[in-house]
Design a protein that fits this description.
Structural class: alpha+beta
Number of helices: 9
Order of helices and strands: HEHHEEHHEEHHHHEE
Largest sheet: 5 strands, mixed
Mean pLDDT: 87
Radius of gyration: 28 Å
Oligomer: single chain
């Protein structure tokens, strides 16, 4: 028994030493893994301005085609966003900007009559909130006319008149994202190019994002796009013994 006890004690000490070595190695490997993970994520992140700055030319060309004067501003362009998200948001942004210039911002003459500056203001602002990116597109144009939205929703048979009566203002405005809402009266070749804002919503959902709209008739409209900071995923294999 004494011999066995001595052997067991030696074995216990060896096991403890081995466990300590494994634990130290595991800590080093974990630290290295997390450092590598951060570096890989950093490689995917690029400043938002890389995708937003080229949109200035789009705004200038569309405004010129429509005979409107637009001052375009980008704020928060230094905030870094996952490259796939920036690439995926390009088309929705272009659609929203065209729509803002075509339907939102009035002509210089109309703006002067309404007591506004003849130059319309269009702004994209990027902010980071925890693990989300908030991209706000705002204009000081005519806003969204809810009566027109109701009229076209009924005309396109998206909802019946009785169903629309049960909606509040926010729910009525959200109808612009319904498939089939595009209309020649409200969506022109400049803004819609034959498709409606439902394409914007679909693209955002593919990016795990969502959109909110706030509008005041005669004052302007604000679209707030909420997006994840990154779409990158890490693939791993966990092995557990005993």
């Amino acid at each position: 028994l004494e011999i066995a006890t001595t052997a067991i004690n030696r074995f216990r000490v060896s096991i403890q030493q081995l466990y300590k070595q494994i634990r130290e190695s595991n800590s080093r490997y974990s630290l290295t893994y997390f450092q590598l993970q951060d570096q890989v994520r950093a490689l995917h992140l690029v400043p938002a301005a890389t995708q937003l700055q080229p949109l200035a030319r789009l705004v200038r060309d569309v405004a010129l085609d429509l005979g409107k004067k637009v001052d375009f501003t980008i704020m928060g362009g230094d905030i870094e966003i996952d490259r796939p998200i920036l690439e995926g948001i390009k088309d929705p942004l272009m659609h929203l900007l065209r729509n803002a210039i075509d339907h939102g911002i009035e002509s210089p003459q109309e703006r002067l009559v309404q007591g506004k500056s003849e130059i319309g203001h269009l702004k994209i602002e990027v902010n980071r909130a925890d693990d989300r990116i908030l991209m706000t597109i705002s204009d000081d144009g005519a806003g969204i006319n809810t009566d027109q939205v109701i009229k076209h929703a009924i005309k396109k048979k998206i909802l019946t008149h009785s169903e629309i009566l049960a909606l509040n203002k926010a729910e009525i405005i959200d109808l612009i994202f319904r498939p089939g809402f595009s209309s020649k009266d409200m969506i022109t070749d400049i803004s819609g190019r034959g498709v409606g804002l439902d394409i914007v919503l679909t693209n955002l959902r593919n990016l795990k994002g969502h959109i909110k709209v706030d509008t005041i008739e005669g004052k302007g409209t604000v679209f707030v796009l909420s997006l994840p900071l990154t779409l990158s995923t890490d693939h791993g294999l966990i092995v557990r013994v005993s």
